[in-house]
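User: Hi! I'm working on a homework problem where we have to compare a predicted structure to a textbook description. Could you give me the structure for the chain below?
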Amino acid sequence: MCACKQKTHDYYAGIIIDEFGKPIEGVFVKEDLADKYAGTTTTDKNGFFKLKASTFEGLILKKEGYVTDTVPMVWHHAGETTEYSRLITEDSSKHELQKVNGRAIAFLHEEFKNKPEFFQITNPKFKPDSLFGIWMEDENNGFKITKDRYYAYGFNGNRNMRYTLKNDTLTIFKDDYYFYRRGIIKKLKSDGLEILWNKQELLRYTKK
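Assistant: Happy to help. Predicted structure tokens:
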């Protein structure tokens, strides 16, 4: 294997966005160094920032109402290759911050003996394309589903999850095959969705 060398800038630059892809103004950007050594800046109305780099230790991103994020700049793979963050190789790469509005979601616990294939769609009662997209309960809570991704907005934990869809039943998995949340799709229209989760929690969603 050969060592891969990317061209890097002597500055950090990028666009900070929220979970819906909208730019976030006023994000405090700081090098991951002691304060007296760290460079700092904030994002503009377009979510853009540019900051002179003194090292490639990483960046800390902070804004009230969002989860503080520390972004590494360099990864070394078994001493063979080095990979750099796009924040030091490009000028307009995007980095996402999550809102601090996490809530608990009820999951069931069971180890599946016959383990399902994730993202498998079997005999769907509804056209999958009509289900794919962003569905919101309110401004902060809901989910995005594609053919290979389920993303829970507003969840207090890892928001990327796996799923299966069989007939009218959507099952999402928090931790591989052990924690799952099962929903029966009761209604699916172009602008409205109803799911009965775990046989007891009926939630209504609007398409965004």
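For your comparison, note the following. Helices lie at 128-131. The chain has a mean pLDDT of 91. Good luck with the assignment!
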